[in-house]
């Protein structure tokens, strides 16, 4: 397992887990979102916070790394208690939570609020990494929309692939809008133009591609891909770039950690538990 550590370490101090959570709840407007999991404090480790570890997902490897780092709290984008999952704290979930409790480590999770935040959110950070400027929302009529529209200098799909590869350290899976069916006589199936208006939503947001097409985007960037996404991209004439769920969601939680380190003078370590999906 590869774990990359990036350490931000100012003078150590102590805060309560409630104070830490209150600050993040306010900063991210966590209460405003209807989410698939509770945002904020999910597991109370019962002690004050001096050291924090951040990561994308509160998996067992991250918990082990936090124990080794002597952290008092883990902060993640993917926590526990997702809508529809079995409630009993048994099996894998039981082992994770038991480990946290036994070591007095709190776990704090922010999901949609951390995707959507205009400054430190996953979408904002991905746009920044790709040299794009966010100009609006994919769903402009929602009060707290997740998903953005961004602009970039007009460029080919090949150039965008190179840029994504450099920014995220992995080659995206690209579905070209410029597709003609075998033996097709329908010239409308071919879409050949430069990309300058892009829909962005990190993670498993591949099904927002139709909305991106509706909003006039030349391309859509997300993390995952489904079989149907290929056909949607080709038939709606919008390029699709699947850049990895994990890879596109490192930016937000890392930025939140940097903010907390500055705000409270606590050492915050971002630990990247390698995930190719
Ligand atoms: Zn996600």
TrEMBL record:
Keywords: Metal-binding. This is Nif3-like dinuclear metal center hexameric protein. InterPro entries: DUF34/NIF3, DUF34/NIF3_sf. Belongs to the GTP cyclohydrolase I type 2/NIF3 family. The lineage of its organism: Bacteria, Pseudomonadati, Pseudomonadota, Gammaproteobacteria, Moraxellales. It comes from Psychrobacter namhaensis. SUPFAM superfamilies: NIF3 (NGG1p interacting factor 3)-like.
